[in-house]
């Protein structure tokens, strides 16, 4: 009799979708990290074969330009992370935990 009033199967389907979405996001994040690491490795191998970094570091202006490039990339990542943290949605508040 109560099964007609309270459809439990709808809730289980809703939570199953949420769990599946979490797994998809995790696997996508891992794939992006691996692909980014491969891209960094490929670029560093290309720079090493071209031998442009050695000529760049020998000069003082080349060192400053390289330092500025690393600083700009790092600060861009920091600004992006800060904005993501500031604009993140807050989780819903549970009101039923204080009931007796």
Structural commentary:
It is a single chain. The protein has four helices and no strands. It is mainly α. Helix 3 packs across helix 4. The longest helix has 43 residues.
* Class based on secondary structure composition and strand pairing: mainly alpha
- What is the tally of beta strands? 0
Helix content: over 70%
N-C termini distance: 28 Å
Q: Would you tell me the overall average pLDDT?
A: 76
| Helix and strand sequence | HHHH
The low-confidence parts are none
Rg to the nearest angstrom? 25 Å
Principal-axes geometry comes out as elongated
In total, the number of domains comes to 2
Please report which band the strand proportion falls in: under 5%, 5-15%, 15-25%, 25-35%, 35-45% or over 45%. under 5%
Total DSSP helices: 4
For the report, how would you describe the main beta sheet?
none
């Amino acid at each position: 009799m109560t099964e007609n009033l309270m459809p439990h199967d709808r809730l289980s389907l809703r939570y199953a979708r949420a769990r599946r979405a979490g797994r998809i996001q995790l696997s996508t994040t891992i794939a992006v990290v691996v692909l980014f690491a491969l891209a960094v490795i490929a670029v560093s191998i290309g720079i090493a074969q071209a031998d442009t970094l050695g000529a760049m570091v020998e000069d003082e202006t080349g060192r400053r330009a390289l330092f500025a490039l690393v600083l700009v990339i790092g600060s861009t990542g920091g600004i992006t992370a800060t904005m993501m943290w500031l604009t993140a949605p807050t989780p819903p508040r549970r009101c039923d935990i204080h009931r007796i």
